[in-house]
Amino acid sequence: MVGGPNALWSFAAFAPAAGLAVAAGAAGIAAPVGIACAAGAVAWTAIDLLAIDPRLRRGAGSITDITTAFMRRALRAGTVDDVARDLTLTLTRALGARLGRAALIVPGAEGVVRAIALAGAPPQLGDPSAALEWLGLLDDSIDRAGIATWVDRPAEDGGGDGPRAALALCDATGADVVLPLRHRGMLLGVVTLARPPERAGDPELARLLRALRAYTTAAVARAFLAAEVVQKGKLSKSVDLATAMQEAMMPSEKPVRRPDFELRGLFRPVAECGGDLWMWRSIGEDKVLLLIADATGHGAAPALLAAVAKGTVDALCELAGTDVDPGQLLSQLGRVVYRAGKRRYMMTAFAAVVDLRTRTVKVANAGQNFPFVVRASGPEGTPVVEPIVVRGDTLGSAPRVRYDSQERTIAPGDRLFLYTDGVIDAGTPVKEPWGEKRLRRLLVAMARERGTKLPDLIWAELEQHTAGNPMGDDVTMLVFELLDAAAAGAG
């Protein structure tokens, strides 16, 4: 628990009562001294239970308590300053008087960088653009020692001036750890923090910071989205700290290969930024989360809504551990999307949790196209493509919507194919849409191709169909194939 030191203080606060009780027993409970000691023990215990311990516990709490409280506040925050205030409260609750300097760095008006002090004096940044551009390439938090290891690398590998500028940013902010608030190639902000020296290697603090990073990314994106809705696009050119709104990027499109599964995702936006989202995440040793989503519209606002969704899912998974249920995940995500998009922007989504040990998959759907299960050999020895028919309302259409999970079995060699409607709508409005029938026929024809090749093969068919005309919508695909690890090992 993050509040471990508070537990020690709680024990210390109770120690006088314990000492008085021992003294009462030694003196004899009937003796005047014993009676006085016993009365003192009772009084001190009452003070401890009614006043001291509750006060200590308000500063303690589990990681789940602290981050959940932050999520509830921050995702209702109307502005970035509100997010900063909530982040200050959370860090103070987690670290107390041991909290060092901390700052939230975000874009301001007309591309000017703002540094909001969370603890300590406001930092004087100078020109942080080189540092922010380098930090915008990172997928995770990094400490000062980690940054230093990059300095001597070749510039083409990310070394040189970028990490040197990041070290200078650490000096300016007094930080020893930096949390990039990054989503799909967009750097929405940076949190800098000076950890207590004795907590620098604390895994519980590291877990807390990972969760806060995810939630803060979502909260900052939501604040920008709220401004985008109010100002009708005036922030579109100043969202990204490093390059003003660089091309949105999904996770790496390189195939992911594991002994018991392979997967690959592909994202092609129709505009500079897209509202599609795909992600995967290992849950413990035996489960994998798959998620695909599509925010309404194109450009900055849908991309920011996708950032809100991604940060929320990351943080919810961090808190849930191995107990991620796709229906519950979409239910919680729907409430966030409703608050963030204010029904002007909504999102469809499909979530699946594959259990590699039991070879089952639990799924839930929020208005997304039905994914497919592709079997290379059906009952008659021919490939079979079956839709996963699960229905649910669009995320953000109502304040609270319940999504139920359904479970089905899968076998080694089975593939899950998830996609957004940009795939089947390709060609519009210039010509007829590519359509679901063509997609199903192609999945059958390619059933014996390696699963990780499917996104590229399908994309080639879409390009041929559109004949050089722009796609009508973002195109996103995710394919997951279950493997037989035991058979592969034996082979």
How would you sum up this structure, described in words?
- By secondary structure, this protein is α+β, with helices and mostly antiparallel strands.
- The chain has 3 domains: 55 residues; 169 residues, 2-Layer Sandwich (Beta-Lactamase), CATH 3.30.450.40; 231 residues, 4-Layer Sandwich (Phosphatase 2c, domain 1), CATH 3.60.40.10.
- The chain is built from 14 helices and 16 strands.
- The strands form 3 sheets. The chain has a 6-stranded antiparallel beta sheet with strand order 6-7-16-15-12-13. It has a 5-stranded antiparallel beta sheet with strand order 2-1-5-4-3, with helices on both faces. A 5-stranded antiparallel beta sheet has the order 8-9-10-11-14, covered by helices on one side.
- Strand 1 and strand 2 form a beta hairpin.
- Helix 9 runs antiparallel to helix 10.
Could you give a quick summary of the protein structure above?
With 491 residues, this protein is an alpha+beta fold. The chain has 14 helices and 16 strands.
Tags for this model:
five-stranded antiparallel beta sheet; six-stranded antiparallel beta sheet; alpha+beta; 20% strand; Beta-Lactamase; Phosphatase 2c, domain 1; 491 residues
C-alpha Rg (nearest Å):
26 Å
Count of helices? 14
CATH-derived architecture of the largest domain: 4-Layer Sandwich
Q: Which H/E pattern describes the elements?
A: HHHHEEHEHHEEHEEEEHHEEEEEEHHHEH
Domain tally: 3
Shape: globular
CATH class bucket of the largest domain: Alpha Beta
Share of helix, binned: 40-55%
Corresponding CATH superfamily of the largest domain: PPM-type phosphatase domain
Largest sheet: 6 strands, antiparallel
User: What is the average per-residue confidence, as pLDDT, rounded to a whole number?
Assistant: 80
End-to-end gap: 45 Å
Low-confidence runs of at least 5 consecutive residues: 1-15, 44-60, 233-249
User: How many strands appear in the DSSP assignment?
Assistant: 16
The CATH topology annotation of the largest domain reads as Phosphatase 2c, domain 1
Strand content: 15-25%
